[in-house]
Design goal:
Length: 151
């Protein structure tokens, strides 16, 4: 029963009016374009989204996390937790609707959208151009995915 409940809730992460369209779009893209190019495309889409939804000014990691969560919460896109270490910034996004929207078989490239968003937001806040946001985990069944900002 527990698995059925979780599966039901996860399917609700994407509006029914968009699900069929987004899955058809993703399927068509994946038959025409190879994965590295698709990741680059989704990263650019994420960058554009990051430009269109700029963060409020922030002076601390806690404020950055809060500003990002204001945007994600408003869109029903889950939330983010950021942890700072000596050499990197860990970014964990929870309850992403990407798999629900595009299908689990497309997550190899669709997650690059978040990579682009986080890269753009952090650059806009003053991160060095030499630092890159990279995906460091696969998206799990609950929409949890990890990224890292580092050299």
């Amino acid at each position: 029963m527990k698995t059925e409940s979780v599966d039901y809730l996860l399917t609700r992460q994407c509006s029914r009016q968009w699900k069929g369209f987004l899955k058809a779009l993703a399927t068509e893209f994946s038959t025409q374009i190879d994965v590295p190019e698709l990741r680059a495309l989704m990263n650019r889409v994420g960058t554009r989204f990051g430009i269109q939804t700029s963060l409020q000014p922030c002076v601390s990691v806690q404020e950055v996390q809060h500003a990002m969560n204001l945007i994600w919460n408003d869109m029903d896109w889950g939330w983010v937790e950021i942890e700072e270490s000596e050499r990197a910034l860990s970014i964990t996004h929870f309850c992403s609707p990407i798999s629900a929207a595009f299908g689990r078989d497309m997550q190899e490239w669709t997650t690059a959208f978040l990579e682009g968003v986080y890269q753009q937001w952090l650059l806009a806040l003053g991160a060095s151009d030499s630092l890159r946001v990279r995906q460091v985990s696969q998206i799990d069944e609950f929409g949890r995915i990890e990224f890292r900002l580092s050299l």
